[in-house]
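[User] Once you have settled down, look closely at the record that follows, and write a paragraph about the fold.
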Amino acid sequence: MKKFSRRDFVKSTTLLTGGFVFSFHSSFPKIFTKERSLDILIKNGFVIDGTGKNEFHADIGIKDGRIVLIGKSAELDARNIIDAKGLKISPGFIDIHSHTDADLIINPKAESKIRQGVTTEITGQDGFSWGPLGGPEIDLTRKNFLEQYGEELKWIRLGDFLNDFSKRKFSVNIATMIGLGTIREYIIGLDDRKATSEEILKMQNEVIRAIEEGAIGISTGLEYTPGSFASTEELIELCKVAPEKFRIYASHIRNEDNFVLEAIDEAIEIALKSKSRLQISHLKVSGKSNWSKVDQLIEKIDKAINSGLDLHADRYTYVAYHTNLSALFPLWARDGGTEKFLDRLKDKNLEKNIREYVEKKVSNLDGDWNGVLISSVGKEEFKHYQGKTIQQLSEEFGMDGFETSVKVIMDNENQVMMMGFGMEENSTEKILAHPAVMISSDAGSHAPYPPMNREIAHPRAYGTFPRAISKYVRERKICSLEEMIKKMTSMPADKLGIKERGRIAEGYFADIVIFDFNKIQDKATFTEPHQYPDGIPYVIVNGEIVIANSEHTGSLPGKVIKSSDL
């Protein structure tokens, strides 16, 4: 379907018949008086269309999954009528950095995301995607997949993953990036070494193939193995072979604390030399000693943008990150994968060097070992570790913090997730307020019932988008509501080239959120995260009501968005 521009709207005509006013585009099917039935009619609301322009009062008509009416209706009938008096109507939120993918197997309702207004999720982030799968830990991947999702892993190729999910039903739309860490593991393995020219060529072919199979861009996780072992030159070579339309480089940069400024420089260099559009993932300055660097960081970003680089970033609305506990340990200790990492943790000759690195990193967190909260572990027998800080566990074990962190990793064979309290509000506000920064959850989807509540989720999985509105618009006033909605809707859609989503516009897919600006509020906390937000009574995906009167209807209208759809 044709994508309508602002100019098309100006040229559109207005039909006055049967007691209602109805504007339409000549290329879009007209609804005449004798066809007086819409699927959904949203009445009396204030529309925030996602473009950043001021809200306006209008009714919204939906038919066959599309928005067909923006105007005033007097007598138009609909199968479902929603009275949005006093409420805001916005495009569905697009989570540009999400980890909701395979979790949809056990949580097709995507509860914690859809209830905060997220209708489209962009996964395959931080260098990890669900294909091409291979390398030395493929058997471990299959084992963990079976344990977590209750079914065998059915695919190797990213295209097979997308085809598999196209046959499933779930409540949100999803699209995926291709992870360069996944490709590196598939071609090279988990070793810290330079790629050969032949391996570069093989990885380039995998990038091209993944995009042909449906990936919409490229991601890296340069603090994780094996993506961290890729050189700047390797990343440039891999990015530049992507078709220009999909040459989006979304990067978890190489460092987010002591060397964050240097890592920003590297990301900009990769984008410039590969002629990519840069998306800096979960932009932050982590660690107490680095908080003052936020102004320098923003200055570097502004300079690159002003020089012509297509550069954006995303960020969640919390001051704690969520990652593997092993991320506190040096990269050289993680070289070669899980088995070699665990062997090094047992080696008393290496303990002094590893300890010094870990303790220095943790000392920069807010609260030291109290700033490291265990959110999930891989083994059921150690589930009691979850929800406790390393400091609390240290007191239970009679160990120091380093010894405790090693024990937790060893007990669970390195399947441990943590929250690190490394950021502060001042720099967070400055980042979120920047006009090139979008909102992202950096989280998967959860629910407050089994099996989705088996771990201590980061509250961002439940509250990122409501919190952006309640805390940072209504309370802190860092930007207008219209600008914040833009950060969640048209900006990510435009960045990724997603057609006909991210705006309230005629002919667009009917992905819509209806919320109460005065009541919208995140409720999830770090200790009690499994709580849905308030103030979002309706969410519509592809023209179907998924949330009605703040409850899930059971509807599963989500679609897989592939590169061929862009």
Observations:
- The two ends are 11 Å apart (CA to CA).
- The CA atoms of residues 69 and 455 lie 43 Å apart.
- Residues 197-213 form the longest helix (17 residues).
